[in-house]
TrEMBL record:
Native source organism of the sequence: Exophiala mesophila (Black yeast-like fungus)
SUPFAM superfamilies: P-loop containing nucleoside triphosphate hydrolases, Transducin (alpha subunit), insertion domain
Gene Ontology annotations for the cellular component aspect, listed alphabetically: cytoplasm; heterotrimeric G-protein complex
Keywords, comma-separated and alphabetical: GTP-binding, Magnesium, Metal-binding, Nucleotide-binding, Transducer
Name of the protein: Uncharacterized protein
GO MF term list: G protein-coupled receptor binding; G-protein beta/gamma-subunit complex binding; GTP binding; GTPase activity; metal ion binding
Positions bound to Mg(2+): 285
PROSITE patterns assigned: G_ALPHA (PS51882)
Length: 596
């Protein structure tokens, strides 16, 4: 293979994909303003495309710096070329889809093509495919950093690496089949970066406007317009050659079935509760996960595997950090422990993407963990956080056959990039919980103006911690400022705020060792836990300058495994009180402020 030709081909492919992504993002930004009902999903897709673009820019940089001058990267060149072709096909498909939108100023209506293209399941599928291609591109970027061509080849030929490339390739294969199956239904011209998979002709549009074609595809188009997934599963799709002539009677039955299903969807929507989860990331995620274990769908194998990998990585990185702390603070690290630490460090560098601990690495981890100086350094850590929790279980977590328990999943590190949605069923009502990160909260808050509840978690033990910023801001003070922004937001004027205080048991122990008054000068309750809680709740009330309804609850997932039921009861009581207060206000009897 000519290295210069391959480098130019890869660079051209990267440039073409980046150009298409730029057009898609521009179109999506316009759609966000026009289709307000789908702005949330548009944001998700835009963010994921931006991540792909960033990875491609890095690939382009490495290609120009390395491949042109080092022609021995044969395996990497082949894998990168295939990854770019697959990524280009997916990006082009996404661009083709969003280019079909109807342009007017209306909101999305039932039966609109845009509603189908931006429904939740479609967005989830597209983001899953994009994630697979992001993983493949990241794998190529890691391979660029290998010290020798042989090491690079071994890394790329690992079973885990081939699995990542296969996922991206399989996604593209299924996408090509899907595009071929529907190509007769579109007049969009496709200029593929790779090959022309779906040929279209100038007379396609004329033929498909004929009455006989319209009659044949009527039921199919109505199914596309329906947001109901169950109906799509019940009515099998048929190709052109398999579809018999549709009689008026069968067409009428199909329409009646669709109408019935739409009415059922409407009834479900009336029973649906929308909830936004914000605040401290560990507390927020722990609340949602424990509620899901009790009232939601079981975690999938892929989700459990993702949590296993994140837990393993967190635990090992924490152990290495302790070793570094001991070495720099005391210097009491033997040569044997240093050798074991190097084995673990090598695993951290080369362990991606599956993070499966080998028996050799597990032995080194336990040798380090049993060191007296390491144990002493661990004891001065905060013992209530997820890091300390997994270090206490390090023998189980770093076993080659480790499988996360429910409590492990509850305490696992956060795994969301921007937002994550969880569906629960409580008392026959559907509760949709959306988690968002703090750094994204204020920017995308307008997308959640119709939520019924906003769950805001506050870690009680954060009162003596400070941010690493210019002002050394107290973390609890920062939490309160976020809470004030929520109370004052015009988008949450009818939203009930549910404040969840986490780590209450650790707070009771910590306040005796680190007085609250040392960090909040106006506090005068000493080491009394009840007085400290009353003070913090009072500070929360001061943030509520517009007298919005809010409730609070102390939650400690370390205390009871069944706390999910208590959280559900907290939601029920809050909802019932809000309903009662609203009815009293409507008849002029309710006070302006009577929230707990």
């Amino acid at each position: 293979m000519d290295p210069i030709s391959s480098t130019l081909g890869i660079a051209a492919g990267v440039a073409s994909i980046i150009t298409i992504i730029g057009k898609s993002v521009c179109t999506l930004n316009t759609l966000r303003l026009k289709y307000k009902d789908a702005a949330f999903n548009i944001n998700l897709l835009t963010n994921r495309l931006s991540i792909v673009k960033t990875a491609l820019v890095q690939v382009d940089h490495f290609v120009n710096e390395n491949l042109e001058h080092e022609p021995q990267h044969l395996q990497l060149t082949l894998d990168l070329d295939e990854s770019l072709k697959c990524c280009g096909t997916l990006v082009e498909h996404i661009h083709d889809q969003i280019a079909k939108f109807e342009w007017d100023d209306e909101l999305l209506r039932l039966g609109r093509r845009a509603l189908f293209l931006l429904e939740d399941q479609t967005i989830k599928d597209l983001m899953m495919h994009l994630d697979h291609h992001i993983n493949a591109l990241n794998l190529c970027l890691i391979a660029f950093n290998c010290r020798t061509p042989n090491e690079q080849k071994r890394f790329l030929n690992r079973e885990e690496s081939r699995r990542v490339f296969k996922l991206a390739r399989d996604d593209t294969t299924s996408l090509i089949e899907f595009r071929d199956s529907i190509s007769f239904g579109t007049s969009a011209r496709r200029s593929s970066i790779g090959s022309q998979f779906s040929k279209t002709f100038e007379f396609d549009g004329f033929l498909l406007r004929h009455k006989i074609y319209q009659n044949t595809f009527r039921s199919m188009l109505r199914r596309v317009a329906s947001p109901t997934e169950n109906l799509a599963l019940n009515i099998k799709s048929r190709t052109m050659s398999e579809t018999p002539p549709i009689s008026p009677q069968s067409d009428s039955k199909t329409s009646a079935l669709i109408d019935s299903q739409l009415k059922e969807d409407g009834r479900k929507m009336k029973r649906e509760i929308k909830m936004l989860a914000m605040g401290d990331r560990h507390g927020r995620s722990a609340v949602v996960r424990q509620m899901r274990i009790k009232f939601g769908q079981p975690f999938t194998d892929a989700e459990i595997e993702q949590h296993r990998q994140s837990i393993t990585l967190l635990t090992i990185q924490a152990l290495i950090a302790i070793v570094d702390y001991v070495q720099h603070s005391t210097g009491f690290i033997s040569h044997l422990i240093k050798a074991h630490a190097q084995i673990v460090r090598d695993f951290v560098v080369q362990g991606a993407p599956d993070w499966t601990v080998s028996p050799e690495v597990a032995t080194s981890i336990m040798q380090i963990w049993q060191n007296w100086h390491v144990k002493q350094a661990y004891r001065i850590m905060q013992q209530h956080g997820p890091t300390a929790y997994f270090l206490r279980a390090i023998e189980r977590v770093c076993h080659p056959d480790y499988f996360p328990s429910n409590m492990d999943i509850i305490r696992a590190p956060e795994t969301i990039d921007t937002v994550k949605e969880t569906e629960l069923t409580i008392d026959k009502a559907t509760v949709r919980v959306v988690e968002i990160k703090d750094q994204n909260a204020m920017r995308i808050m307008p997308q959640f103006a119709d939520v019924h509840f906003c769950v805001f978690s506050i870690d009680l033990t954060c009162y003596n911690r400070y941010l690493d910023d210019e002002d050394s801001t107290n973390e609890l003070f920062e939490r309160l400022q976020y809470l004030r922004a929520i109370f004052r937001s015009k988008f949450f004027h009818s939203t009930v705020v549910l404040i969840v205080f986490t780590n209450s048991l650790a707070f009771a122990k910590q306040i005796a060792e680190s007085p609250l008054k040392s960090h909040f000068g106006d506090y005068s309750g000493g080491n009394n836990v009840d007085a400290a809680m009353k003070y913090i709740i009072g500070r929360c009330k001061l943030m509520n300058q517009l007298d919005r309804p809010f409730f609070w609850h102390c939650y400690d997932f370390a205390a009871r495994q069944g706390d999910g039921e208590l959280m559900a009861d907290f939601f029920r009581r809050s909802a019932s009180i809000v309903g009662t207060m609203k009815r009293l206000r409507e008849i002029g009897l309710g006070p302006k402020s009577d929230w707990r």
